[in-house]
Amino acid sequence: MQEHEGKLHPVRFVPPLRPADETTSSEVSCVSAHEAGAFPTR
């Protein structure tokens, strides 16, 4: 579980872009989801 802006997000929320680097892919996917408006900021 990753803590992002006070919310816990499952690491497997979005399929990893690069299986060799799951951590970076997960972080990028999480940020991308927020930017896309998938999660409310508040």
UniProtKB/TrEMBL annotation:
Residues 1-42 are annotated as: Disordered. It comes from the Eukaryota. This is Uncharacterized protein. It comes from Phytophthora cactorum.
